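Listing S7. Sequence submitted for prediction.
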Amino acid sequence: MSVVSSPAVSQDLSDGADNFYRSQEVAMQKVAFDNQYKMQVVGNLFTPEDFDETKQYPAIIVGHPMGAVKEQSANLYAQKMAEMGYVTLSFDLSFWGESAGEPRNAVAPDIYVEDFSAAVDFLGTQGFVDRERIGVIGICGSGGFSIAAAKIDSRLKAIATVSMYDMGGATRNALNNSQTLEQRKAVIADAVEQRYVEYEGGEMEYTGGTVHELTGDTHPIQREFYDFYRTPRGEYTPESSSPELTTHPTLSSNVKFMNFYPLNDIQTISPRPMMFITGDQAHSIEFSQDAYARAAEPKELVLVPGAGHVDLYDRVELIPWDKLETFFETNL
């Protein structure tokens, strides 16, 4: 194990933001494991203070926001939970960060979901992890991926989401169901036409993600993401990418989210507990509310006063650590 080092870049700590938090109380080890499709998934394993390999610990998997990497939000949550006595694992979804998968930035929701089960495979075969006490925290898009995983993987004993995004619903319908059927069909038409381009050796095209500059017309939600992904507050470029491509999925693969329905059958996760954490000012609040309404007991919806969507990525004074501590202490 190696002690977590200080960040190499100057960080914006305004308004309590601390994405690149480095705990002095936990140790970190880079790990790698294969998912069921023999694709290597790379993660950071955090262990608590006074860690003893001869003992068994409860463990928590932490999934990063969609389009992000483990260094963005997931490492922060993983370290904070490790400080509470858990073995924790943050990891890069396939096609992103240090994990395998080509083309880079591809959308493959079934494989993303599989990565969470592969993380359980890895943790559950470590002698110092109690395989009957493994939970998960899914942030933003990973909230949906972790729910989809829990529906078919009963080894995940407690599921918490933070600023959850249903990437399927968001892609099909946009926020607040604002996308028409004709607009959806136009998106699909662009994507399938791009497949011809790529099949014939043409250039890859990218979509969505975070804008690279602000203008007077930039939408408030894009401004919110820009403040995290395009400033020292949370900007991070893995070796497998470039500043121009971070956060942007490939155009031709992004439509695969339209076949992704993570909240269908969510009630089958019961009686395993679920907790949905969202800011009461979050543009994404509809997804946590929808998930909570569909889920069976035991369940809890936590509204954080004054918090927006991205605030809960890294503003440590707003994130309800006490709620997470109680949830996992009670259920793992």
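Caption to Listing S7: primary sequence and predicted structure tokens for the chain studied. The chain is about 30% helix and 20% strand. The CA atoms of residues 25 and 295 lie 36 Å apart.
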